[in-house]
Amino acid sequence: MVNVTLLIDDSDIDLFIQRRFLEVYHFSQTLITYKSADEALNWLGSLNTGFPDVIFLDLNMPKIDGFAFLEKFAGLPETVTANSKIIILTSSNSKADVDKAMVNKNVVHFITKPIKQSDIEELKAKFAS
Fold first, then answer.
1. Pairwise CA distance, residues 30 & 3, whole Å
2. Looking at the DSSP assignment, which residues form a beta bridge with residue 85?
3. Structural domain spans, the chain
4. Does residue 115 contact residue 18 with C-beta atoms inside 8 Å?
5. Does CATH number 3.40.50.2300 belong to domain 2-128?
6. How many other C-beta atoms lie within 10 A of the C-beta of residue 80?
7. For a tag on the chain, would you pick the N or C end, based on fewer CB atoms within 10 A?
């Protein structure tokens, strides 16, 4: 179980589903949600401690999409970027999106929605090691 998880998705329904799956399968002690990348970036930039271990990020969002978030995230203090691993959780199954996301040093995994129990079990194993 990770300590803090941040979910960023503009869809209320997707946030609800993701939150429930992560709660039911005991992925994280604390779950924080934001409906916009901009709000999440502001929150991350204000932290001195309590950084999220894992950030689930949707790619397809208005105003600031997931790729713009990744660019801005790289500009945050190293205390944030070094401690937070990003998992792309998106409806896109485009190979171009997968390739573009996985080149980012902070992205550790790519999941196409909907999230499944097997995805969570795989991530739990990844973060346990």
1. 6
2. 54
3. 2-128
4. yes
5. yes
6. 19
7. C
**HSE-CB of 9 using CA atoms within 13 angstroms:** 23
Residue 5 and residue 27 in contact, taking contact as beta carbons nearer than 8 Å: yes
Per-residue pLDDT of the chain (129 residues; tens, 9 = 90+): 899 999 999 999 999 999 999 999 999 999 999 999 999 999 999 998 889 999 999 999 999 999 999 999 999 999 899 989 999 999 998 999 999 999 999 999 999 999 999 999 999 998 876
Helix (H, G, I), strand (E, B) or coil at 4: strand
Q: What is the pTM of this model?
A: 0.96
How is residue 115 annotated by DSSP?
Answer: P
CB 58 within 8 A of CB 15: no
Of 12, 13, 53, 47, which is closest to residue 31 (Cα–Cα)? Answer: 53
User: Hey, what amino acid is at 50?
Assistant: G
